[in-house]
Amino acid sequence: MTQDITRRTIWMHPDGSGTVQVLDQRSLPHEIKAQTLTNVTEVVAAIQSMVVRGAPLIGATAAYGVYFACTEAAQQADPTAYLLDAFERLRQSRPTAVNLFWALARMQEAIATTSDFSQKADIALATAHQIVEEDVELCRMIGVYGLPIIEQISAAKNGAPVQILTHCNAGRLGCIEWGTISSPIYQAHQKGINVHVWVDETRPRNQGGLTAWELGQAGVPHTVIVDNAGGHLMQHGMVDMVLVGTDRTTRTGDVANKIGTYLKALAAFDNHIPFYVALPSTTIDWNLRDGLQEIPIEARSPDEVRYISGWDGSQIRQVLLTPKDSAALNYGFDVTPARLVTALVTERGVCAANEEGLLGLFPERKIGG
Amino acid sequence: MTQDITRRTIWMHPDGSGTVQVLDQRSLPHEIKAQTLTNVTEVVAAIQSMVVRGAPLIGATAAYGVYFACTEAAQQADPTAYLLDAFERLRQSRPTAVNLFWALARMQEAIATTSDFSQKADIALATAHQIVEEDVELCRMIGVYGLPIIEQISAAKNGAPVQILTHCNAGRLGCIEWGTISSPIYQAHQKGINVHVWVDETRPRNQGGLTAWELGQAGVPHTVIVDNAGGHLMQHGMVDMVLVGTDRTTRTGDVANKIGTYLKALAAFDNHIPFYVALPSTTIDWNLRDGLQEIPIEARSPDEVRYISGWDGSQIRQVLLTPKDSAALNYGFDVTPARLVTALVTERGVCAANEEGLLGLFPERKIGG
Known about the structure:
Two copies of one chain form a homodimer. By secondary structure, chain A is of the alpha/beta class. Helix content of chain A is 39%, strand content 18%. Chain A folds into two domains: 10-134, Four Helix Bundle (Hemerythrin (Met), subunit A) (Up-down Bundle); 145-365, 3-Layer(aba) Sandwich (Rossmann fold), CATH 3.40.50. The first copy, chain A, has helices at residues 40-48, 55-73, 79-91, 98-111, 117-156, 182-190, 208-217, 230-235, 261-270, 291-294, 303-306, 355-361, and strands at 10-12, 20-23, 34-37, 162-166, 195-200, 222-225, 241-244, 248-250, 255-258, 275-278, 284-285, 307-311, 316-320, 327-328, 333-336, 343-346, 349-351. Chain A has a seven-stranded mixed β-sheet, with helices on both faces. The first copy, chain A, has a four-stranded mixed β-sheet with strand order 11-8-9-15, with helices on one face. In chain A, a hairpin with a 4-residue loop joins strand 8 and strand 9 (255-258).
């Protein structure tokens, strides 16, 4: 694996076979392995088993699944039935990832323009490529607009390292390239600005390990901390800014992100440290006004709290952390109210975390406007 | 092991041999094992290797170590030199535990009243017992004063479970019996009041597993959560009070407790949930006025962040969580400013977290008063 910080999470196999390769994220950060996907069944399995994760990447992977489905359908007695079934299998691979449904709808629309299955396959491949390139561009632009924030802090500190705290993985591993929060960081690093990232380990699934891995690959200085540590670092002047992603953002600027984000926002507010949220506008739910009341929060398996996986020296192994009879509860996300968010960093610019700010960048969303 | 919630963490061996037994806390919550201590060398090893942990319990264990040392000294050519050396070994077993030095100083003073080593041994045993009983009584009284807080919430909720969130282990396992935060909880449970405890797992050392284990032994309903989850629970009305311990408390009511406590205090404050700190007055440092500036915070091994231990089905095993090359930083404690603390629960009563409140309960600490 190279140190190229713009390397992708999904790519066409370099052997020209027309198959797709993805980074196997189940084994990260302990083993670096690519997995080759050659048919729709393998795509469904890769999404289900979390070989790929992160909403944009799931959507893109499913898009290539539609390409495989079209190719396979052309060889069936009833190609239309086969294709419909393939869409259904892809749709059910991760029932909660919004980008998955969005990508599948877009693919369906694109291939509906012809009834020839060979042509459908060509269109599907081109559209999948397009979805990938669009995500790359969205993330790149978030970096373009986020970079000046880091530059200003760097200037104010006379070039001393800009200390950025992040939570979960909103880096390139959840996207195709650049990532959301990582895009401004990578662009700053490329420009020679001193940055250092405090990486929350992000229990229970320890996505901080993924963030640490990709920052390490990119040569960005970073230090892993437990989720409990950020408040102390902020109290002692060791954090200049917090930068996190979001899974869903309301029209009013409330953000739902990985559980624990709210606690860091409170600590940032208490210590007068700016708290930024980086997001592609695709995560904005323009129908919602009250994040705490309206954003549904997924309750996941208690076993993610009770057990943890790590590298035992030769393989990834799961160990039990709690008493075997103790109950556990596992919410996946929490909501940070807009009042705690300094600004939102989008692909169209930086704005205040409120309706006026967002509509300034996205005027087409004004109701009756 | 019985379900007796007042069972102790250290006790004289029931075989009458004059040896001491302790609960081996290294294997909890996965295996319940007692360890027998028969001489001063074994006591030093038990403290060093964290067979016993928690300031009061470390002090008590060391006190029994002095008893063994006196017995052993009587059989040496130079008993005084032997005893001095034993004190030094005990003193160096855990260099930062304040109760250890306090207990050793008290033992030294007690046995200085005679030059006969057999009498010294008798006095040492009696004084060790006394140290143990005093800690039990301190903890019991914290429960007596903390109980009404739980009772009032229970009454206001018409008997629905009082939802208590805690962080780390300030239960009986760190003490002899009752514990500090657990004493009001156990006393409420014994009185038939419905309580349910949200147990923060408390990375990096997962003392939440100890808390869950002892609550389970006592039959107290509880649920383990990751440290990230408390804010979300508080936002959604699922927490009635926070109750934590403290390792050091300033004259002005600032509290240093396990890293992450400050984040929970912020969330409690933001959601108008009372935040109580239970403490024996021995943790108050009457010389300090500014916790953030004056309380030194221990930086522990980064490997406690990088690795975690758990039960693999047949043994306790350590696994790596982070990329092997990533740096990690590991502060053991953070400071919660008094402004976020609703009240302090001590063995003399409940008071506001400020100098006036503390001096009201401990008037002998008034300077020049």
